[in-house]
Amino acid sequence: MYRKRKINKKLIILISSIVVVLLLSVSVILSRTYTPVEAFFKDIAVSTQKIIMYPFTAIKNTKEENQNESYLIQKNVNASLEKEIEELKDTLELNRTLTEYSVVNATILSRNKSYWFNTITLDKGKKDGIKENMAVITKNGLLGKISKVSNNSSELKLITSDDINFKVSVAVKTNDTDNYAILNGYDKKSGLLKVVDIDKTTNVKKDDVILTSGLGELFPAGIYIGTVEKITNDKYNLSKTLYIKTKQDFNNIHYVTILKEKK
Questions:
Q1: Pick the CATH number of 168-245 from 3.30.230.80, 2.40.10.350, 3.30.70.2760, 2.60.120.700
Q2: How far is it, in rounded angstroms, from Cα 63 to Cα 65?
């Protein structure tokens, strides 16, 4: 008797399952919404499938994520390499235009985060003929000067340095006239260089060009620095301070050109 009831119970479950499957099949064929019963069993089926398939889905997703991550890394590497190649091309092109000077191309060896806008270590030194106070440039203009030299490397002091003793004599080109002043200082917030000691009567305008003057013989004359972005008067109204916008990206430097003695 007990065995008969057990068989009947199994039979009922089997028939019910067949009915549910048929109902689900019909609902799909007829493209209609599920009845409450169909929806209930459908939810159970989907949930069960998710549980069963989760390990495989997780593996697949992880694989896809890794592939996506690898793709993004490779994309960034390619973009970086393309930028460096272009920068190197610009450096080589620059060499062709600097016919007066013997030049040495150098690569950035290291850069201290604590002195990011002060100094950079280059891979050229005494064995390459590098000496202190040589000008360092890129196609975008003046970067700074060589401040220290060892046999195999040298230290570049940037024009953005906070060293108050590092001054560059510059010429402000305004109305076809050269007005001489001193480049000394950098505003980190605005990313602008500062030119001081401009006479208050000088008719300096926005977008006037700033070049090295050649005075003092520290830097050759005519190296591009930037253009006037903003003009302010000192607190005594005796002189003007110019804020200079450069073309240099001081956060992204890879190759530089060191100007040696004239040929």
A1: 2.40.10.350
A2: 5
For range 102-129, the mean pLDDT: 89
Domain boundaries defined on the chain: 2-61, 168-245
Taking each helix axis from N to C terminus, what angle separates 36-97 and 2-30, rounded to the nearest 10 degrees? 50
Q: Rounded to whole angstroms, how far apart are CA atoms 37 and 26?
A: 13
Asked whether the beta carbons of 243 and 231 are under 8 A apart, the reply is yes
Enter the pTM of the model.
Answer: 0.62
Task: Give me the chain's average pLDDT, please.
Answer: 74
d(CA 241, CA 196) in angstroms, rounded, equals 5
d(CA 43, CA 27): 15
CA distance 136 to 106: 10
A 10 A CB-CB count for 230 gives 14
3-state secondary structure at position 36: helix
Q: What is the DSSP string of 150-205?
A: -SS-EEEEETT---TT--EEEEEEETTEEEEEEEEEEETTTTEEEEEEEETTS---
Compute the distance between CA of residue 72 and CA of residue 64 in angstroms, rounded to an integer: 12
pLDDT at 153: 93
- 71 or 121: which leads in pLDDT: 121
| 158, 121 Cβ separation under 8 angstroms | no
Q: What pLDDT shows up at residue 31?
A: 41
Q: What are phi and psi of 230, to 5 degrees?
A: -150, 150
